[in-house]
Amino acid sequence: MAHSSAAATTMTTVQVPTTIGLDLSDRVSHLHLMRGDGQTLETGKVQTQRAALAQLFERWQGCRLVIEAGGHSPWISRLGKECGLEVVVANPRRVELISKNDRKTDRTDAELLARLGRSDLELLSPITHRSAQAQAHLAVRDARNAAVSARTGLVNFVRGKLKSSGSRAPACSPECFDRRALAAIPPELEPALRPTLLLIEQLNRQIKGFDQQIQRLCEERYPVTQLLQQVPGVGPIVSLAFVLTIDDPKRFKGREVGAYLGMVPRKKSSGQSDPKLHITKAGDREMRRLLVLAANYILGRFGPDCDLKRFGTKLCADGSSANKKRARVAVARKLAVLLHRLWSHGESYDPLYLAKKRGELALT
Q1: Taking CA 192 as the corner, what is the angle to CA 190 and CA 196, rounded to the nearest 5 degrees?
Q2: What is the average pLDDT score of the chain?
Q3: Within this chain, do residues 149 and 163 fall inside the same structural domain, yes or no?
Q4: Does the pTM exceed 0.90?
């Protein structure tokens, strides 16, 4: 008996938008346009400049733009959204089909981005760029890091030159090194080292200026950092960097922020094999470094008694260097989750919250 048309199974066709695969380069980017049915519409090049890209994007409004995360991707992704495109930013760490292609060229990269964006977006492991304001404010932290790195290089240079001439610079902090080291300079090295000490003095003043900018940003633009600074070891630099790196706390749930910052172990299990691997080190490397520094303080002799310290102390109970390192990273990961919770829920910090729930006594 023939089935009626009403009982017939109907197939729903998903309309795939035209996809633009754009392989970004510093001066000239390659593009590959592909229609929803897989037919190539256009290939070519475009200048990696705002005017040229805006003209291209406006011509293909409503289409899907697929790019890889990189130096140019933040502003290009924002430009694409302003021009009415659906923008997908692929995570290059997860798209090995492109990075390990035996016939890799800019043209084939653009084509692969278009094909992957047309088929399944999950294959691209899309990421979300922080806002333009967060990126600009985060540049203050990066500028401070550059100044501190330059100062460290100059201090080491002076110490090395003094040591090679039979003298020795005094043991002191970088903030007072330019004044303390002046007396240790022999006459023959004054033409080289006295101007170097002046550079160190200028860098000290500039670093103080960056610190003041960071403090003002915390107080005036990001008052939520005051909640995060309740945790010992978390000051203006760590709290501001965390807020600007995460940008929107609603993007993450629970422990996801630890994975986002690359502080969870890699997984490579197969059959009966499930080895312990190092952390992924994905995400913002500087934010990860700052969290580990805060964890060092928490686990150190001056860190007050708290749940985080007790957790880390148990992990490195045997005193081995390997377990101490694992404990620092584990405490840094838990610290990131704690900061995210304080921010998301607006809670006050209770250093012994878990200990009280377990009925444990405070350490004297």
Answers
A1: 100
A2: 91
A3: yes
A4: no
Report how far residue 90's alpha carbon sits from residue 266's, in angstroms, rounded to the nearest whole number.
20
Task: Tell me whether residue 9 is in a domain.
Answer: no
- Tell me how far apart the alpha carbons of residues 4 and 20 are, in angstroms, rounded to a whole number: 42
The residue from 124, 143, 177 where one domain ends is: 124
Structural domain span for residue 155: 132-221
Whether residue 12 lies inside any domain: the answer is no
Alpha-helix residue ranges (DSSP H) falling in the chain: 50-59, 73-82, 96-99, 106-119, 132-164, 174-180, 190-216, 225-228, 236-246, 256-260, 285-299, 307-315, 321-345, 353-358
> Tokens 């190539």 correspond to what residue?
40
Distance (Å, rounded) from C-alpha 65 to C-alpha 17?
Answer: 10
Chain mean position to CA 190: 42
Largest CA distance in the chain: 109
Instruction: Of 3, 16, 114, 119, give the one whose Cα is nearest residue 68.
Output: 114
Q: Is the pLDDT of residue 12 over 80?
A: no
Let me know whether 349 and 247 are in one domain.
Answer: yes
- CA-nearest of 226, 233, 229, 230 to 328 is 233
User: Could you tell me if 51 and 95 lie in one domain?
Assistant: yes
Residues 329, 231, single domain; the answer is yes
DSSP 8-state symbol, 4: P
Give domain status of residue 336, yes or no: yes
pLDDT band at 93 (very low <50, low <70, confident <90, very high): confident
- Structural domain contains residue 10: no
Structure-token pair, residue 172: 């002191």
43: left (phi over 0), alpha (psi -120 to 50) or beta: beta
Residue 191 has which token pair? 């033409």
Structural domains of the chain, count: 3
Using CA atoms, how far residue 225 sits from 128, 231, 306, in Å, is: 22, 11, 20
Domain match, 99 and 71 both: yes
